């Protein structure tokens, strides 16, 4: 009877998981094996779409671009989140609750709204930055500009994860450090940060997934800088434009599956590297 009760509680989740995730995923995989032709209509293509994607310069440039984005933006974001979490946990910060809420609030703002707000600030003709001659909508500045948006969107989310992990550190460790004469900086470096490794790894894996799925921010900023942010600026944006603008649904499905594979490989590499560093 107990086993049956467990299945009853899990059944609603499994139903919607299959209906809204596995079935669409399987259908997308099915579509990726076909292609449309002017003569003959839709025909079975096997792995032809995947072969084409692996040699598609637009897709490859997009993947390299988000890889660079990940390599620069994620360390900055995690450093901000870690600093905020340590400051709150130190007990030395005045109005810590207000500070914590202030850092977290940007995460509560939807990505579309955040991109619109920052797009106004970046605007070359009406934004306040333009009055000081600052233009962040150029080829060289676009990636840092997008990184700034994403950093302040998700720094609060990662801060909450790290702060929650800090609250689980046994008080005995802090007492032993204080007895040894360790100050706040040494306590943070030798006790708090090592205790945060699992939480930092979790944030890092989430950041891998989020970085390679970058879509809303470049999609909206594209209206302000169409010559800089093109339809293939990120792999997700490229798959979207293929499916809904160029009507290449089959090829877009193959691109999406390859992107998922890249995310899987990078996430596994991060976990593997972190596992080896512990030894």
Structural notes for this entry:
This protein has one domain: Orthogonal Bundle (MetI-like fold). Helices cover 73% and strands 3% of the residues. It has helices spanning 2-31, 48-54, 57-90, 96-108, 111-122, 142-166, 171-179, 184-195, 197-212, 216-221, 235-244, 249-278, and strands at residues 34-37, 41-44. Helix 2 (48-54) crosses helix 12, helix 3 runs antiparallel to helix 9 and helix 5 (111-122) crosses helix 6. The two termini are 44 Å apart.
The main sheet orders its strands as 1-2
User: What would the CATH topology be?
Assistant: MetI-like fold
| Amino-to-carboxy terminus distance | 44 Å
CATH architecture: Orthogonal Bundle
CATH superfamily: MetI-like
- On the 0 to 100 scale, the average pLDDT is 88
Q: How big is the Rg?
A: 23 Å
Helicity level, as a percent range? Answer: over 70%
Low-confidence residue ranges = none
Q: What is the 3D form?
A: globular
* CATH hierarchy class name: Mainly Alpha
SS element count, helices: 12
Q: What summary fits the major beta sheet?
A: 2 strands, antiparallel
Order of SSEs: HEEHHHHHHHHHHH
Class by SSE composition: mainly alpha
Classify the beta-strand content into a percent band: under 5%
The domain tally reads 1
Number of strands: 2
